[in-house]
Structure formats: structure tokens, C-alpha cells
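Good morning N.,

You mentioned wanting to compare the apo and holo forms, so I went ahead and generated the holo version with cytidine-5'-triphosphate. This is what I fed in:
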Amino acid sequence: VEARNIEKKNIKIDKNAIPNSAITLINDIMTKGSYEAYLVGGCVRDLLLGETPHDYDICSNATPSQIISLLKTLRYKYHTVGIEFGTVTAIMQDGNEYEITTYRGESTYTDGRHPDSVNFVSTIQKDLVRRDFTINAIAYNPVTDNLIDLFGGRRDINKGVIRSIQKPDISFKDDALRIMRALRFAIKFGYVIDMTTSLAINRNVDLLNNISKERITEEYKKIFSYNKPVLQVFSQYRKVIATTIPEIVPCFDFKQNNKYHKHDVYKHTLHVVDKCNTNKFEIKMAALLHDIGKPSTCTLGDDGYCHFYGHPEVSYEISQKLLKERFRLTTEQYELILNLIRYHDITIATTRKSVKRALNKHGLDFLKDWFILKKADADDHVYPDNNWKYMVDIPKIKEIIQEILDENACFKLKDLKINGNDIMKLLNIKPCEHIGIILNTLLNEVIDEDIINDPNVLKTRASEIYKEIS
Ligand code: CTP
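and this is what came out, ligand included:
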């Protein structure tokens, strides 16, 4: 495994990038409490990279009760939600919150999530050694400008390498989620995973079966939120993908033998994930699963090519089950992913009628996400003879949508200038199934532009329809 050839000389932390309140808090812990305190973990890594950390974690040799009494003396607000893991959170006047965690040593994770016991240690060195990767095990004190980098974290940031601190077999046994974290950091920063760590990932991949679906879901969510290419990492570490999503295994190396594809199903899937230009997890996840039904629907046609009739529906069914069993999603996330999969192969003609029908059936928000997946999927197809029949003209459809929205055109029941009450009054009838039939017929006729969306026109037509159906 070749390390990325980047040479950022002398990477240093820009102290001005650190919020004043973090520096004040560390200073107070040191001077008013006489304890040690350092920024640690992801924030130090990000500061060294010149990126803005999303949070700042502090570690200290003070115990949680010592931290609490210090914060009380200093009249800081705080909460103790994480106290069982040695964490007290200080709430600063500027609204920033900082987790202060007492130096901790190795722990076992029976449930793969929470340490079985919190094992406080006396030195920062012992705290750093139990962490996952060298790039995540650097501590920095912004008051004294002291940077503690015991395992070559800066060297690895320079080289672009993810490397376990201790023997990776031990590190992954301590917390198997680190296997997914290694992939995630490699994707996020475009780094390579060092050879020893890499071999251990493949050796220990089964340990991921002990990790809760919440934590696996979180990792996938984070991976996809970066909108960075996953193709290389998801190919090289496909055992990790196979362990977390076993249903995808039949897609590996499954040749499409079809004039519209140049990649096997799994490779195509990964190309589509990467071509989805979004940080929206649901779209990327749908891209990863959109063709999962292809292997089981493959038939050989008389033309000598493979066909995958009905694969979107089968992909939908397989995904329905696997997303329920293996991921923890909100109902909205679940439904959006599934609908994107189910409808990934539909086409929309570039006519007002067709676009209005699509808006009616799917809604604008869904279509916006669908365009991203559809374009990505289309971009990884081959179009022999430049046959555009298979392409959806997305720019033209967007143009038509804009036109429809600008003129406030009617494409859903709510937009009709008549409602159920109006119809009951007009026809002097009580609530019954006829009302729904009349409204839907009117809507279809308005969408088709056979009649205009005008109350009087609609009333006249409603009376006619009522006569026809009653
Ligand atoms: N850590 C670890 N092993 C884990 C999880 C976390 O050693 N399984 C340590 C690492 O030192 C990590 C720190 O705890 O840097 C904080 O973890 P977390 O907040 O999950 O990740 P970050 O490294 O901050 O990265 P990011 O938030 O950007 O994902």
C-alpha cells in the first residue's frame, strides 16, 4: 500500500482557529484547579489539517468529581450526561459546550458500544495509547502550545495514512467499529490504510457482527455525508461491506453482459454512489442498493444479452428487509431510500402532462433527490448508437417543473379550485365514494389540460361526471 505522496512541511496548529472559550476553560482547569488539560482526538487532527473541527474534546487528569467541583467554583454551567464514561460537559457563556473526559485506559466492549468499566489512568500517555489511529491520538495544549504526538500522528497526516496505534488485532477486538472508522477516515481524507492495519481489518471483519445497528448506521451516514468517492475503499474492503450488508454479496463481480453496462453490478453500484453529487445519506444509500436485485432477476435473452426485468421491485424488496434488520433509520429515511430504489428506473417524458403526473405521484422534494440518483445512474450507462431512449432529459424536465410552479399550475387535489364540500353542496349528496371519484377525475382532466382549473368549469364538469357514474 503506497502512502499518498503529500508533503505538508511542518504542519502546525493555528491557535486563532480555536475558540477562545476552549482556551479559557483549559486555562482555568490548569490554573484554578492545578490539573492537566489537553484538546484531544478528532479536533487536534482537524486543526493540524487546517479544517474546522465540529467539536472540541478535552481530556484531563482531574476526576469527574474534581471537574464538577471546579466548574461549580468557577460558576460554569455543566451537565453530567456522560459521567458514567468519565465525561462532564462544560457549557460556556458563548454557547459552546466542551466534553471534559478523565484520562481513560483500555476497556473491553462486551456490547461493542459502551466500555464495560471505566478505567481511569494517571497520565495522558496512557490515555492516548488506548485510542484507535495515530492521527486521532494527538493531544494539544493551546495555553502552553505543547503538542503530544507519541505515535507519529503528524507523520501519518503528512503521508496520508490510517494506522492503528497498538497491534490492530487488539485494537479491533477492543472496539470492532474501528474497522468501519478506518474506512471512514480513509474516505473522508483520501488516505490509505497502512498494510498491517489493512490485513487486520480483513482478519477481524467478523467482529463487526457484534456491533449494534445504530453504530453501523452512524458510520454509513457519516461516510456518505462527506460526498467523497467510496469506490476505491468499498472495493478494497468489500469484506466489510459484505459483513454489514450480506445481501450485496451476489453483486460482487456479477457481470452484466449487456450493451448498456461496462461494469459488473457492484462496481456499477459504487460508480453510481460516487456520481451522486450530494451529501444526503439517503440518496447515496439508495445508490448503493439500487441494483441489489439484479443478480436474482438476471435472464439470458435470445439476443445473447443479460436482462434484469423487474429488478427495481426486487431491489426494493431486498432493501426493505435489510434496512429494517441491519440499520436504524427514521421512517422518513427508510421510505425515501426505498422509494428511490423502487423508482430508479422509471422515465418521465418531457411533456407537461407527464411532468405534472410525476409531481402528483412523487412530490417535488422526492423528484429533486431522484434527479440526482437518476443522473448518476445514467452517467454510468453506455448508450450504444447514442440511443437516448434510455435517458431521462433531466434539464428539460426541470425546466417544465419551473414553468408549472411559476404559473401555479394544478397537479394535486389540493390545488383544484373545488373540494369535497363544494361537490356535496352542488350535487346535494352526503359523503360517499362518488366524491373521491369525481375529484380524481377532475384532477386528471386538469392535469391533461382537457379542462381549466376554474370553479365554474369544474362544477359543470362535476355534474356531468356524477351523472355518468351514478
Ligand atoms: N476513539 C477511539 N476509538 C473509537 C472511537 C473513538 O479511539 N472507537 C477516540 C479517538 O481518539 C477519536 C476520539 O475518540 O479521535 C473521538 O471520537 P469521535 O468523536 O467518534 O471521532 P473523531 O475522531 O472526533 O472524528 P469525527 O468526529 O470527525 O468523526
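The longest strand covers residues 97-102.

Happy to go through it together on a call whenever suits you.

Best,
F.
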